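Hi F.,

I've been meaning to write this up properly since the lab meeting, where we talked about keeping a consistent format for the predictions we share between groups. The idea is simple: the sequence comes first, exactly as it goes in, then the structure tokens exactly as they come out, then a line or two of notes. No screenshots and no reformatting. I'm using this chain as the first example so we have something concrete to point to.
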Amino acid sequence: MIIYLLMGLAFAQNQPDVDIETAEEVTEETSVATMIEVESSSTPAVWVPVRITLRNGVVLQGQIDLQQVIDWSPENDDTLQLLLDSGSKQPIESAKVFSIQQVTQASVVELEKVSEPAVEKEEVTSTGLPEGQFSYANPAASRYLYAPSSIPLQQGQGYTSQKLLFTSTAYGVTDNVTLLIGSLVPFPFVSVVGAKYATRLNDDWHIGAGGEAFFFPFANSLDGGLPSVPISVGYVSATYGDLDSHVTIATGVIYEQLFSDGNIVHPLMVAGHKRMSNRLALVTENWLLFNPDALAVQQSPFNASIASISFRLIGRRDQSYQILGKMVTDNGYPRYTWDIGMVMVSGVSTATLSDPLTGETYRSLFGEVWNLGPIPWIDYTWHFGPARRPENSDTGE
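Output, unedited:
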């Protein structure tokens, strides 16, 4: 028993003395370190005012976390958080961002003070439709199979189209004026020149006017005369809708000397374009040709009609800037379209009688309707120039 007491006393003497004040200091330091960790977790983020340009041409402005700007790369899978002026945050995928530009001095905003939007807002692209339905603008909104819409090319934009043996090129001189030239290839027996003026009235309506002249470049070349112009067209048009879904009505005057000594025909053209996905659209273009002078001799004013339906294949975007092996694009803009469809042509032919004494020609009151087709229609178009800007920032519209 005495031995156990002596061992216990020796053990107590070997223990170090505990300083109460030192223990209090250690406890205080631990508490301070914990407070620093808590404060560092609530350090305010630096939000930098920026202007973000997306690959589809849309420009957004707001504030973004400085660290996200430093870490941003188009190859990242990260999602940027853009703080809008309304106080809501707009998520943007890094791969959809073309450039980020700082616009003003940096400002410090407490992250906890950012209010989330009460209602989730849809991200709008340059097509005017919610993001996710179409991820880039339609490059072929200015035309149907042949006839133009009232939606103009923007300045610097253009296209070259190959329709079987006929090649044509259009170029936007300004945001409202487009010039056209075309010819048969490889021998330019038939050529065309034209111009169109079009403008945007509001979100739904565009109007336009223009003219085209078809001529034979070599018709009078042997005798030194001017080229023959057998067909000339003047028209006005109105388009309702947006870049992806629109309908156009056009009319005007066609003066032709190809089948007569000079005949005036009034066309009525109705065309439509419906985009169904990023890469597929449905296009139709339909013509009715009337000759009002036929009413004076009790004949039908109907001369001919053209009906067509086509699928339009919109090319893939190339997001790299390589020249060899890939198409050069600007802001991921689609560079080509294919039109694959059918065309049906109908007309009325009437018999003619000639008076042997006077030489005057008389037409029969009866006509025979003829049909040609369906004729396959294939058109390849190469689009060049900058990506289309959002229409609300267009100049001159």
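Notes:
The first strand starts at residue 45 and ends at 54.
The longest helix spans residues 20-41.

If this format works for you, I'll send the rest the same way.

G.
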